[in-house]
Amino acid sequence: MSLFRRNKNSRNSGPLSHQSGPDAARAVASGRDLSSSKQFCFLQAMATRLQFENSCEIGVFSKLTNAYCLVAIGGSENFYSTFESELSGIIPVIKTSIGGTRIIGRLCAGNKNGLLLPHTTTDQELQHLRNSLPDGVVVQRIDERLSALGNCIVCNDHVALTHTDLDKETEEMIADVLGVEVFRQTIAGNILVGSYCAISNTGGLVHPHTSIEDLDELSTLLQVPLVAGTVNRGSEVIGAGLTVNDWTAFTGSDTTATELSVIESVFKLREAQPTAIVDEMRKSLIDSYV
């Protein structure tokens, strides 16, 4: 039996109601009302393979949401420019460190509503992120002993799965800052849910040894379809090798064509739903002014 905290603002109503895309993200990031627009320009959704220096664990050095993307400072210009070329003009791509390190994807947790940072985050880093992120994104530094938040938390814009031993105060902070329901869970017996899972509002990829029963339970909690699989030519550490939002994904260069096909399928990266995007954008605008 999983433990959970229900956020009063959560709007879980099924996977089809959470579809989004680049124009929705642009609206959320800028606060612009596109509901009366007659035309939509959709980027070609896809998954991109790349490396951070000599590492294929690009999820360690980046964090992607529907409202912003964080990339580690000090990496090659090609790493940054790959994100920039896919996301420029849609959401901000922000270079940063966290706690003086480059493993930012393993240290933070976030979605379009907020960003949670560990207690090791410096005042300068905190101010830099608050200045760089869209105005609607709440940035919060939390005092949690399990400071690798990216390993301990995985979330989309509606639900978060967490390490079973997180402090109660941290659980409440996740619900409040990220605007999500919180479930204490394991994935294939692993307590580091952020390491062995990647989810968006449209789907999720989990540890390859996840049982059918666990897949069904997790899918019910998240209200999105899930697939058990791998990245980087058989790696079980999904969160380290993949970062994804509702319309694009970035994965390590060792990821095979078969793995890439599974990623694009489960996250519905080649589908665009204009009506759903307008609906999601309207909800975001209404919520921001209520």
TrEMBL record:
<dbReference type="InterPro" id="IPR002769">
    <property type="entry name" value="eIF6"/>
</dbReference>
<dbReference type="GO" id="GO:0005737">
    <property type="term" value="C:cytoplasm"/>
</dbReference>
<dbReference type="GO" id="GO:0003743">
    <property type="term" value="F:translation initiation factor activity"/>
</dbReference>
<dbReference type="GO" id="GO:0043023">
    <property type="term" value="F:ribosomal large subunit binding"/>
</dbReference>
<dbReference type="GO" id="GO:0042273">
    <property type="term" value="P:ribosomal large subunit biogenesis"/>
</dbReference>
<dbReference type="GO" id="GO:0005730">
    <property type="term" value="C:nucleolus"/>
</dbReference>
<dbReference type="Pfam" id="PF01912">
    <property type="entry name" value="eIF-6"/>
</dbReference>
<protein>
    <recommendedName>
        <fullName>Eukaryotic translation initiation factor 6</fullName>
    </recommendedName>
</protein>
<dbReference type="GO" id="GO:0042256">
    <property type="term" value="P:cytosolic ribosome assembly"/>
</dbReference>
<comment type="subunit">
    <text>Monomer. Associates with the 60S ribosomal subunit.</text>
</comment>
<feature type="region of interest" description="Disordered">
    <location>
        <begin position="1"/>
        <end position="23"/>
    </location>
</feature>
<keyword id="KW-0690">Ribosome biogenesis</keyword>
<comment type="similarity">
    <text>Belongs to the eIF-6 family.</text>
</comment>
<keyword id="KW-0396">Initiation factor</keyword>
<keyword id="KW-0648">Protein biosynthesis</keyword>
<comment type="function">
    <text>Binds to the 60S ribosomal subunit and prevents its association with the 40S ribosomal subunit to form the 80S initiation complex in the cytoplasm. May also be involved in ribosome biogenesis.</text>
</comment>
<keyword id="KW-0539">Nucleus</keyword>
<feature type="compositionally biased region" description="Polar residues">
    <location>
        <begin position="10"/>
        <end position="20"/>
    </location>
</feature>
<keyword id="KW-0963">Cytoplasm</keyword>
